[in-house]
Amino acid sequence: MWQTTRKSAARRAGEADGTPPERRGSRPPRQPARGTSARAPRPAGAWLNAAGVAALAVMVAAQIATGLRPQDLRLTAAVVVLLAVGALAFAAAAHTPRRAAGAFAAAVAAGYAAEWIGTRTGLPFGDYRYTDVLWPRPGGVPLIVALAWGGMGLAAHAVARRVAPRGRLTPILAGALALTAWDLFLDPQMLRLGLWVWAEPGPYRGVPLTNFAGWLLVSFLVMAIIDRVTGRPAADRPVIGVEAAGTTGLVALYTVMALMETVGFAAVFRPPDPLVASAGGLAMGVFALLAWGRAWRR
Measured between alpha carbons, how far is 231 from 171 in angstroms, rounded to an integer? Predict the structure, then answer.
């Protein structure tokens, strides 16, 4: 009787100050557990990851065709475009489409600017020029080259964030090294195809060592930009679901590129080049293995 009277009084008090009566059996809304994010799930992430997988699969097919028909530059351009599409799709799942697009555009712009300055001043890569093979070529810099900076930049950044998830400068430096490792393959291959020419050939299959110093510098800038635009993950928020799958897709893209280039220089290209296969495969392979090892330990 006393409990009924107390509930009636509480109900009348609530009605007097405008508070609606509680529904019988209702519970307060569940609060997110400490250390987890309240971010709403993004259903589109699954479709973005699927698009990334499709682009990656077609890229592998195009790379195989490139090994069989190395002089068909349309295939080379297709590989770079598919690389960019796949990286952008995976990054959109990992970070949100807006951040991924912003990071990709900024990396492409930074790469284009570095190439534009480099062809005019010799800094930071060395004295070189592009031939008339690749088009379109606004300002003397092929757009396909700028796309390569953006696509592989996103992949190298994901690898670096797996290898060195904490800190500010360490992941950026790791990403710069991972991206420069790719150039151990890229420059010798593009020189074979006659896409650019060095004024003074260097000791690494005609590539001067200043080129790699310039790549490291520009790669550091690209990694810093991507890191800034995408944002660093919160230390107390586990990355799961489509976000983790997007990052894994970027790491897989980097790994596939390392494997395909290694096999290409070791056995497919004519003549084969064991030096480039070993140098590039070891450099990119170390970062790929570290990234996968970090993922498996989770």
Answer: 12
Q: How far is CA 211 from the centre of its chain?
A: 22
Cα angle vertex 238, ends 55, 172, to 5°?
65
Nearest to 253 by CA among 47, 94, 46: 94
Note the Cα 152 to chain centre separation in Å: 6
More confident of the two residues 212 and 43: 212
Distances in Å between the alpha carbon of 12 and those of 2, 158, 222? 15, 59, 64
Give the span between the Cα atoms of 45 and 56, in whole angstroms: 16
- Which pLDDT tens digit goes with each residue over 114-163? 999 999 999 999 999 999 999 999 999 999 999 999 999 999 999 999 99
- C-alpha span between 7 and 14 (Å, rounded): 11
**Both ends of the chain: CA-CA distance in Å?**
57
HSE, CB side, 13 Å, CA atoms: give it for residue 194: 7
Tell me the per-residue pLDDT of 4-56, one tens digit each, with 9 for 90 and over.
444 454 455 444 444 444 444 444 444 444 433 444 445 688 999 999 999 99
